[in-house]
Amino acid sequence: MHKSTVKFLILFVIPSSVNALSESEFVQSLLSNNIFFEKEQINLTIKQIEMEGDRVNYGDWDWTIGGELGRINKNKTKYDYTSTIDYAKSTSQEVRKFSSDLTKKFFSNGSELSISYDKSLPIKDEEMHDKNGYQTDKNTTEYLDDASISWTLPLLKNKGGVVDQKTYDLAVLDFEDEKLALAETKEDFIEEKLMIFLDWVSYNTQISIVRKRLEQSEKILETITLQGTSRISKITLQRSINKIQRLLLELESKLKAEQRSLSILLDGLDLVQSPLKINWADRAQLIEDLHSYCQQSIRDIKRIEIEQLKNSRSVRTYQNSQLADFDFTISATKDDNKGNYSTYSKSSEVEYEAKIEFSYPLTGNVSNDVYLRKYRLKGRQLELKYKDKFDDVLSDAQKLTTELKQGLKQLALYQQQIDENRADKTETELDAFLAGDSNIRFVIIENDDNQSLLLGQVEASINYHKNRIKYDSLMDRLLNVE
After folding, report:
1. Antiparallel, parallel or unpaired: β 62-79 and 346-359
2. What is the SS3 assignment for 130?
3. CA angle 185, 191, 196 (to 5 degrees)
4. How far apart are CA 220 and CA 224, in angstroms?
5. Cβ atoms within 10 A of the Cβ of 390, count?
6. How far is residue 49 from each of residues 60, 175, 185, measured CA to CA in Å?
């Protein structure tokens, strides 16, 4: 009985359950709880709306319709100084007017199409007086129809739409950055909660070990009491049991604290029916070419690259804005009108035009020059920021790599010591004590050593797995946990 009890202490026995929640299942449960990431998801949605809105706003048709209704009364007196007779004219005019303008910019080349149509239909009543008598021309209707179409292509400034498209291009980069930020937020959250997960597993496993030790010590006390062993031995063993009980209470208190945190994270989680478990044999997949991997896969590095792309896009805009306005325009216009005084006075005119317009401010654009210098300097800042972040990631990865390798050596050493204890102890101190050849203190020391070895192995293993989680998080692959 006693030998089998002691052997349990030097075996790494982990309680299991068919309903146990694994590390990957725990991560998936957190990811499926969208409330944790709702704010960040809203930010991503906002960026997507802004991006799509900028694209539509740039290339959308802009249609403007206007109308006018009014009445004009005019009294006009002229003096003819070659005659003593005055010349007078009275006009009453009703105005009806309609206008429509349609414009569209083309995203691919920055050109702009403009179509317009204007129609007016005024009716006039007029009276005229001159030295020769009275003249009238009443209810004279005139109208005007104007239609035009033009297309303008920028050849220097805003060539290819480089200036106009800046807002959209930056919105696209902002959207990509927001996606990376959301993934980074999720991974940081998962890393933090996995630490709670591992702490729970650690305390739960240590409690199992300590409870077995307590059970063994209580059975030993029962045995030596029945055998009438000395009072001093019983007192010494009872003190050891008290010490084990204090350790057990301390571990149980820590376990309850972790359980409260976990219950907040996952509502309805029953850690009795579905305890947490890890694969103790899992090992970190270390990356050999860290330099290349960081360039391709680290989100913080990619986000700085996006900052650099945004900055370069601004530099291109302000560089282009320094150029002269040099535009090519083709247009066609048709005017139809019927004049005043005569119902038969009509005209129609069609005009075609192709032109190149050039303009440049001789004093330059001071504001544009300021922004250009600013963003060029910012480009150098971002280069330094990129290098600092890259060096930090490499340094942290190398440090964790060293700790993981050392952790494996430590675990191998623990296992070696456990195996040696198991092989060497053909006869335990308990057997010797019961045979009257040893002291109860040596039994307690032996069991303390066994317990310490097992608890140390648990802590070393948990520390290794924490470093494994930190490493995967640093390498931005924690969300891909299987």
Report:
1. unpaired
2. strand
3. 130
4. 6
5. 17
6. 15, 9, 21
- Cα 462 from chain centre: 31
In contact, 332 and 349? CB cutoff 8 Å: no
What's the longest Cα–Cα distance across the chain?
156
Cα-based torsion angle of the residue sequence 375, 379, 384, 386 in order, rounded to the nearest 10 degrees: 120
Cβ 429 vs Cβ 446: under 8 Å: yes
C-alpha 269/C-alpha 264 separation (Å) is 9
Would you say 64 and 78 are in contact if contact means Cβ atoms under 8 Å apart? no
C-beta of residue 21 within 8 angstroms of C-beta of residue 276: yes
Show the CA angle centred on residue 290, arms to residues 284 and 291, nearest 5°.
170
How many C-alpha atoms does 268 have within 13 Å on its Cβ side?
A: 3
Write out the two tokens for 215.
Answer: 């059970």
Predicted confidence (pLDDT) per residue in 99-120, tens digit: 899 998 888 888 999 999 998 8
Query: Whole-angstrom Cα distance, residue 2 to residue 212?
Result: 12
Distance CA 34, CA 131 (A): 92
172-175-179-185 Cα dihedral, nearest 10 degrees: 140
Place of tokens 């948990």: 462
pLDDT tens digits for range 195-253? 999 999 999 999 999 999 999 889 888 888 877 777 887 888 899 999 999 999 999 99
- What domains can you pick out in the chain, each with its CATH number? 2-57+167-322+368-480 (1.20.1600.10), 65-159+327-363 (no CATH)
Eight-state DSSP code of residue 20: P
The rounded distance, in Å, linking the Cα atoms of 202 and 104 is 66
Contacts of 378 (CB under 8 A, 6+ apart): 311
Joined tokens for residue 361: 């401010």
Pairing mode, strands 86-105 and 123-130 = antiparallel
Q: Which one, of 174, 55, 53, 156, lies nearest residue 106 by Cα?
A: 55
Q: Which helix H or strand E contains 397, and what residues bound it?
A: helix 366-424
**DSSP type of residue 478:** G
Please list, in sequence order, all residues whose beta carbon lies within 8 angstroms of the beta carbon of residue 58, skipping any fewer than 6 positions away. Answer: 105, 107, 164, 165, 167, 168
Helix/strand/coil (H/E/C) assignment for every residue in 295-335: HHHCHHHHHHHHHHHHHHHHHHHHHHHCCCEEEEEEEEEEE
pTM of the predicted model over 0.85? no
